[in-house]
Amino acid sequence: MIVFRWFKNALLFIMKEIASFLIKIVMVMVILIILLTVFVPKTPVEKAPIRKNTYIELDLSNPVGERGSLSIFTIEGEKVNFYNMLNYLDKGKNDQRIDGLILKVDSVALNRAQVEELGRKIKEYREVGKKVYAFSRGFQNRNYSLAVNADEIIMPPSRGAGSNISGYFMELPYMKRLSDKIGIKYDVIHVGDYKSYGENYVREEMSPEFRENITRLLDRIYYNFVQDVSVSRNIDERTLSRKILNGDFVLADAFKMKEEKLVDSLMYYHEFLKERKIANITTLGKYARSVVGHQSSGKKIAVIYGDGEILYSNSGRGAQQSITPDTIISELNMAVRDKNVVGIVLRIDSPGGSALASEVINAKIRSIEKPVYVSMGGTSASGGYYISASGDRIFAERDTITGSIGVVSLVPDVSELAGKLGIKIESVQKGKLSGIYSITDGMTKGERERIYESSSKIYSEFKERVSSGRNIPMSQMESLAGGRVWLGEEALEKGLVDGIGGLQDTIKIMAKDLQLSEYNVVEIRRENPFEKLFMNYKYLENFYNKFNSLLNMEFNKEKDMTESELIIKPVTYLPYRI
């Protein structure tokens, strides 16, 4: 007993010392920030000179977020969000100093919807007579689908430069046997036969419904890819598909790619610049600094971002991107209160999450008198579609992942594992179903039936929201729901969206519908307080980024999405990135 008491006191002492140390660190940081804010002069933003005959070099290897940052701070760091990127490319398209674009596409960290919208922007450059070059040391389907929009595709003349263009391959771990060996069991309660979230914990192989769903999606994505390449490269579609499926372009070198007319020229980058007489190059970030200006007053269309998993609360998530009712409703209220805002475009890129949070946001959007249009990003599925269904009009890209109308609850049972570890769980209980969410007591038939009943009601509410928002009879909803996942082009056929297009398209359609000849677009978001504090100090950017990364680390697992939002509570969630 004495040993246990000593061990307990020692552990408490260590924890107190660690907590004390962390508090002191935070206090020092706060004092340092205050001193820097008061005494250090703000870093002026200088416009970068842009010469004539300049090309904008676009390196797409880093993710371009939807929400991003709206301050000049990030533009100084040559970072812009996706909408800003499109806008600055628009300015470059009409700038006589800009001769064209150079796409560096060794890898492309954009989602499919972003690739589609950026691809159209590239074509606009070509339509006004500006050259677009795509340079890469290696191609896969994703980066090649962007490169085909260029005037010329270039690779280095090396056997080490090559291709892995192929059909498709997707693998998912099914962990039931592992869970059984460890002693962790799961109760996964699906409402919707095609709702696949959590099935890999309770099955040893893929369900027929999930296989059917995912195969259909991947087939259509592949067909769209082949069709785009066929048209852009003037290659017979059947011949191209036969060669791709035969593996002809897997580990194919640059010479093979040129022989097959998938690449135009073989040159090293410096040779390409010299051969095409390109002397002046600027990055998009530097170009953005040269054209930053002020918006005029007048009517405005507000853009609000819903980017990430849907949580009811962001507590414990640090600076991680997520969608919460508190944030979205606050931003919507800002747009509603602004008399100059005549319409709102909600950009949704989310696999879903909390069913309750999705319903709260849906209800808020329905209450807004100003028109709200929804622009779907790469994924707007499950809870993401729950929110989207409240929009007056919805637009998606051809390959946007959407639908997944269904509900699932996942409750783990670690009682067997606890027994193996020599842990005996004792409980005190009063009242029927009071221990329904215990992860150490096992779920009874009655508890499972109660969760299914609750989830079924949420599922019915989900379908009702879609039926009402999309004007689809309830009698037709089950054939569209049940957890089925659709591509944007399929969703258009099913009446789940109104049109195919990106964020800029949605804004232009809203302006046309509202008969606006002149208008400004404003991005509304609640700023991260750390970013707001640092935005005027260029040399603090690195410190902010490192501190932001620390906030993203999962020190508090109790607040992690997987444990507090996606397990136990009913969720509308699509966990797979396709």
For the structure shown, list the relevant keywords:
578 residues, alpha/beta, 2-enoyl-CoA Hydratase, Chain A, domain 1, 3 domains, eight-stranded mixed sheet, six-stranded parallel sheet, 18% strand, globular
> What is the total number of structural domains?
3
The biggest sheet amounts to:
8 strands, mixed
What is the CATH domain class of the largest domain? Alpha Beta
CATH architecture of the largest domain: Alpha-Beta Complex
Q: What is the tally of beta strands?
A: 23
CATH superfamily of the largest domain: 2-enoyl-CoA Hydratase, Chain A, domain 1
Taking all Cα atoms into account, the compactness measure Rg is 26 Å
Low-confidence stretches: 1-8, 70-78, 530-563
Mean pLDDT rating: 85
- Give the helix tally: 23
Quickly give the structural class: alpha/beta
Into which percentage range does the β-strand content fall? 15-25%
Approximate shape? globular
CATH fold-level assignment of the largest domain:
2-enoyl-CoA Hydratase, Chain A, domain 1
Ends apart, CA distance between termini: 55 Å
The level of helicity is: 40-55%
